[in-house]
Amino acid sequence: MFKFMKKSDFYYSLPEELIAQTPADKRDESRLLTLNRNTGEIKHKRFYDITDLLNAGDCLVLNNSKVIPARLIGERESGGAVEVLLLRDLGSNTWEALTKPGRKTRKGARLSFGNGKLSACVEDEFPDGRRILRFEFDGVFLEILDALGQMPLPPYIRRYLGNPNRYQTVYSKVPGSAAAPTAGLHFTDELLECIREKGVNTAFITLHVGL
Asked: Peptide bond preceding 127: is omega within 30 degrees of 0, i.e. cis?
């Protein structure tokens, strides 16, 4: 009989003290847990051991999406602070976004960032909290975002290192993500070269990470 999947099927305990707050000094020295599907054997390794798990002729597919500084802190025209997280570029200076406080950023609300260097109007809102923002600015949007925006971090990371490169993969290329394709953060250029020398093929796709 078909069994419907529930969110509760994925609940598990993850002690807060086991959640890393800072990355390893070297990307490929992060911990790696492996499971042998045939025997059920579990092993604790380091990420650089991934070369032992790949064989000549395999194809390693990597997401070259680049995280943008998608977190904006500004003010509402009516008064009070506002926080915006950009999720998806819809074109024509319009973005899908999350705003906080949501109840104060309803349709028609106007927002300002960087003392007016960037402004936005809420053009639409959805029951799940998403907003459609149309931005107004002079210049190149991504350059303004680089100057005003912050790297979006998951809520369980409490301390920002101040080095945005540590929140990008070494092969990130195409701007557009609101979060990093996390597993890829552990690759280094040297590790990728070792993988290629083993005869493993690499292929790149662009899949932006949003809500």
From this structure: no
